[in-house]
Structures are given as C-alpha cells and as structure tokens.
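Schema walk-through. Below, the input block comes first and the output block second. Nothing else is stored per chain. Lengths vary across the set, and this one has 373 residues.
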Amino acid sequence: MAIFSAVVLSMPIWMSPFGAAYPDILQKFVIFGVFAIGYNILFGLTGYLSFGHAAFLGVGSYTAVWSFKLLSMNIIPAILLSVLMSGIFAVAMGYIALRRSGIYFSILTLAFAQMCYNLAYSVLTPITNGETGLQLAKSDPRIIDRLFSEAGEGLPSTTLFGIETSGYSGFYISAVIMILAFYVSLKIFNSSFGLKLKAIKSNQNRMRYLGFNTKPYLLTAFVISGMYAGLAGGLLAATDPLAGAERMQWTASGEVILMTILGGVGTLFGPLLGVIIIKYFENIFSAVNQVDLHSFYALLPDWLEDIMVAVSSMFVGEGWHLTLGLLFMFVVAFLPKGVLQGVEIGYKKISSYFSKSPTKSTKKADTGANHGE
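--- output ---
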C-alpha cells in the first residue's frame, strides 16, 4: 500500500514524459480508477458481467450536483449522499437483475441502465434538466453555506473545507480517495467474503449443494460495486459540477468493461492499468495530428517522412479507436489475463535473467580446473 500510494501521488512527475501531467487528465485517471476498482469487485470476483453500471455513475453525479445546489459546496456531503443514493439504487436494481445469471443478467442490467438514461433525458427533466444537464445557478439555496457566509457575486466553486477541488489540489483529493477505495477493495479480495465470491465464480452450483445461499453474497457484491460507481460519479461532479444523462449511456458501461478486461479481470492492479491506457488514448493519443507526426519523423528523408506520416495518421488523432481496437484484440488473443499478465511475464523473464545459475560451460571449466588441481 505504501508503494502503491507513492506511485499514485507521484503521477504528476512520472506522467510528465508522456504528456499527461496536467490536472484534468490526472483526475480522470484516478476517478475512473475508482469506477474500475468497484466494477472489478463484481465482475472480477463473481464473473457477473453488468452492462448497467453507468446508471450508478449517473445517479452519483446527479446526487452530488443537487447536494451542491441545496446544501453546500463542500464535497463531503455530496460524496456521502452520492454513495448512499447509489447504494440504495443498487439494492433495487440488483434484487431484480440477480434473479437471472449469465447473459440474461447482463441484458437486464443493460435494460435498467437504458431506462435510467431515457428517464434522465426526457421524463425526469425537472430533476435532471434533460439534455442540457444539471448545473449550478446563482439562485440555488445552498442552505448550509448561507448560514455561515453571504453569497458572492459569481457562481461558487466546489471545495474541501476551503481547498479547491480543481487543478492539482483536486487531483490529490481524488487520489487520496482512490487510495482508500483501493485499500477497501484489497481487504475485500483477501477476506472470507471475497473467497466466497471467488467460489461462486468458480462453481456456483457446487456452492449451493454445499448449503450456501449465494444470492446475499452476490447482492452485497453488486451493491458495493454500485456504491463505488456512485463515488466515482460524485467525484466527477466535485471536480466539474455538472451532471448529464450521457453519463448513464450504455457506452459508459462498455468503457469500464473494456478497462477491466484490458488491464486484467480479477486482478487488483489490472483495472487501473486499463483506465490509464484507455484514458490516455482518449485524451492524449487522440490529440496527435500531422504536424506532430512531421516533427517526429523530421530526421527521415522527405519521401519516407511523407509515407510514414500518411500511414501513422490512420492510427492517431481521429483514428485512435483503431489503435485501441488492435491493442484490445492483441490482449484478448495473446494475454487473456490482460496487460498485467504481460507485465508479470516480462518481470519474471528479467528477474530470471539476472538470477539464473552459472552456465554449463562455466560449470565444466570449474570442474576441469578442480581436476587439474
């Protein structure tokens, strides 16, 4: 945990060579890291594939913004309410969806998420503000804040007891929350509860034959995972106080699935690697243009430079999805346990190279020398 915390908190330093050291992208890394950690508790431990976790992300965002509008711009009440409301919603959704398993469970969660998206987009516009999205307004009551201070001229900003949640301070606040979320996930993975979830994934029928009622364990895992998603939604609203229906779309659920599979399902660090890869492609790799490519290939002859730029431009900029798709295909085909498996294989090869025993020739030479003596 100490090493992990140091790596996360030092991201502005070691992400600088990759061009991803600015606060907005760093906040996305850690916030979607919370989302992926929670999703991995359900999918990684139980094997239940949910296509509806974007609903909890949206519920958390809307709850946080309403907390800013009605109560205070301090993020503590907003985050607590986001986790609570997402947990309540997860109980209702999981109670129905977990009556089925396999593909039927996945379809049910997708149906719930799409219903929530359409309700937020059209029917519940008094609460969600429809396609415009829920935003702050100067006329908002903000009861707690107005009890202790007068309203300023412009729109207030979100804070943590006076510390701004934007910029690098916002990143460090989100990073600390992600570290705590990872610690809770680590405890769940290593607990007897986590062991039962792994047993359900391995053979749920055998668990039932042994006398275990698996539904309470599955529902608990589903609710915990939903609360993680609500926490991520609350953090998104805390860094940028705006909530829209697009956070409930099926594409948001598909994104966290890709993050988890790409990094390594059921592993502790794999989903976090998947988050960094996908968000880096989405925000940095997609911004590479032909000017950048020409400067990159500037040392080549002009005719070769033009060819390399023409070929490379298909995989960067607007074509970043193609590169991500090829990477995903490679991982699924050759690294079924995700990118983390490739990291582990590389680490083992390097460690074995430096710790290998003396070669046969060396042994023979030593033996001959001993006989000569």
